[in-house]
Amino acid sequence: MKKLLAALALTTATLAGGAAQAEGYPDRPIMMMVSYGAGGATDFQARIVTMTAGNDDALGVPIAIINKPGAGGRVGWNWLATQAEADGYTLGAYNVPHFIAQSIQGGVQYDADSFEPIANWGADPAVFVVKADSEFNSMQDVIDFAKENPGKFTYSGAGLFVGHHIAALQIEKAADVKMAYIPNNAGGAGAMKAVIGGDVMGGVNNLSDAFRAAEAGNIKILGVADLERSEFLPDVPTMKEQGLDVDDASVNFRGVMVPKGTPQEAIDKLAALVPEMFKNDRIAKKMKDGGSPMKVMNREEVQAMWAKRQETLKELLAGL
Amino acid sequence: MEFIYYFGDVFAPMSFMLLLIGTVGGLILGATPGLSPTMAVALLIPFTFQLEAAQGLILLGAAYTSTVAGGAVSAILLKIPGAPANIATTLDGHEMARRGKGARALQLSFLASAVGGVIGVLLLIFLTPVLSQWALAFGPSHLFWLAILGVTIIGSLESRSVVKGLLSGCIGMWLATIGFDDIMGAQRFIFHPALGGGVNIIAALIGIFAIPQVLNMFAKGRNDPNVEVIHVQKSPLREAVVELFSKSRALVIGTVTGSFIGLIPGVGGQIAGLVAYDQSRKMSSTPEKFGTGHSEGVIAAEAANNAMVGPSLVPLLTLSIPGSPTAAVLLGGLLIHGIFPGSDLFDNYPDVAWTFINSMLVGQILMCIFGLYVAGLAARVAQVPQSVMAAIVLGLAVYGSYSVQSSMGDVYVMASLGIMMFFLEKFGYSAAPLVLGLILGPIAEANFIQGTMIADAGDGRMGYFFTGTLNIVLIAIVVLSVAYSAFMELRARRQMQQTEALA
């Protein structure tokens, strides 16, 4: 209870703090907004990668996680873009392609220019899954079925304008087939349940969740929507290897950003320290134990990645 | 019987201390409006970083079981359900507290929780493989019919008027459409940024139940400061135990309904208490007493929502699918220690898995002991003067709705829904059907849309929604439930006419 109270007090202190002092930054705890619920993959990873923030070789001050879930992340990112204080003490976790795709779709108060990237910590590719006892054993089987039965192959994913949906669009476009994408309202877990329960014939899901489900013998993984095979699944071929022109546009990149207007000194300091913090051995071990693929990228690399995504997604979503 | 072998681990000094902390802390957190079991478990996860896997899970398991039971405290004493699971408890529990029987209501609720909870965990221990198949059997069409079954309960939930019950349910369902639509991402009725994420269910619960209470208390307090001084009756534990077992029908219905509905991913936990309450009223010999401070209502609701705890973890532990928001948080707690749930969990990590389950079993008992210990003291809350009470409840309501996601937006939602409900109650509409509409709306809608999309790709909508054993069974229960409500309504009306004719 005491620890809990201390954590609460810390959070309150973070919220109540005033404007930033550039020199000596950071001199008080930092808050990081996660736009998904507590316990979800993004929240869970955010808590792991920030757990060493208080160490002297990292930021020297702890990072407290605040969840602002809702509407597939839109609530939290709207808040970060319009209401959060750009003082260097308010960070946000990003999910690419989600927030970029949402800003292209419209109806939100942010786009890629509303935020300044700091560093990337993880990359979770989308994979194509079917139930363990399914007749489909490769992407080719699925495509063949879809060619013969246009629009009849049902497959689940975590909603519209998220990585799963992007992968689905890319697969259908690459194979020039029509299939029935069924967006799920309960996220990746709900979409996975639909596959295991036999509600749909297949699905697009996160590599990390699919890896666990495959280990448990519930599903088969037919392909990875990334440029290279994953170290978690060395035997599963990529989409490209199976003749489908699908790149890494659907890979779910997770990292840290700040709202536009944050003092340049704070951005520079964070951009220098945060990627190093992510490389900590303890973090790497916890992430690996949790089945979460890591990919540390610095500010310049993330800027380039955002710009590239922006372009690909605009083209892909233009037809919708 | 393997679980008995690992019982010793629960009673190791460090583990048992964590179990105590989890249980007592969970009761306190659960009794605080706005801190749902999901939140409480999520708050505790960072502390398990420093612990060993088994010890961390003991803390989480104990906290999960006792927050669910702790929610009954505020439901009974303040008429603020701590989580959707406790809505049904307010219906009779708070009436009992108003009659000075708060201590008895709390005792019964903790005893019923313990009985239901222990049986639920035992089901988890012995029947997991069978149950996991049952949990998977529910596809979109079945979940849609299940939600419709919930809607039929709306009409009969508050006995005064079926039409007004259904109307409140419709208002709730409309409120549920606010926000970005879950599946398509379309914006609906977002006229204020605070509504972007939709109406938060916990904030709505607090507003709808607590604010009318507060306003009524202020209104009464002004007229007469000494109004309604409640004499809190003492309640010997022995009598409470005797009462619990004399109402064994409600206890059995609550436990059975809670266990089976709790299994169904995505639906179970939220409506288990209400379905059990409704069923035990329909099967009771004295259905008219429900809603007037009848102990059967408290027993059925609390037995059900704790019976749900064990089975709700079946899909998580065997299939790695979190069936409820709390299970999703627990999944995070497992993963952080490198433990992947799945069918081989019990082979790979028997010590962790069994210690976790045992801790929930022991946690249920500890929770009951602590609950009974504080019941007598807690019931004295009813003696606090109305004006003071109103201020405290108002403070808790604001604090609780803010803390859900640290957002003032939820406080505005809580306040405006609360004021709306105050006026609706003046016209005879009640809160429980409205909240049930709010909970069931998204379930029915999302599953209907997914179902139609799957059906359109396959064998057509008629075939998808109306064939298959499970669909037909669910439709039959829906029809029976409606017919029963109509029959009761007609009978009540005829009796009224007869009494009028006699007079």
TrEMBL record, chain A:
Organism: Brevirhabdus pacifica
Source taxonomy: Bacteria, Pseudomonadati, Pseudomonadota, Alphaproteobacteria, Rhodobacterales
Listed InterPro entries: BUG, Bug_dom1
Family: Belongs to the UPF0065 (bug) family.
Protein name according to UniProt: C4-dicarboxylate ABC transporter substrate-binding protein
TrEMBL record, chain B:
Superkingdom: Bacteria
Name recorded for this polypeptide: C4-dicarboxylate ABC transporter permease
Organism of this sequence: Brevirhabdus pacifica
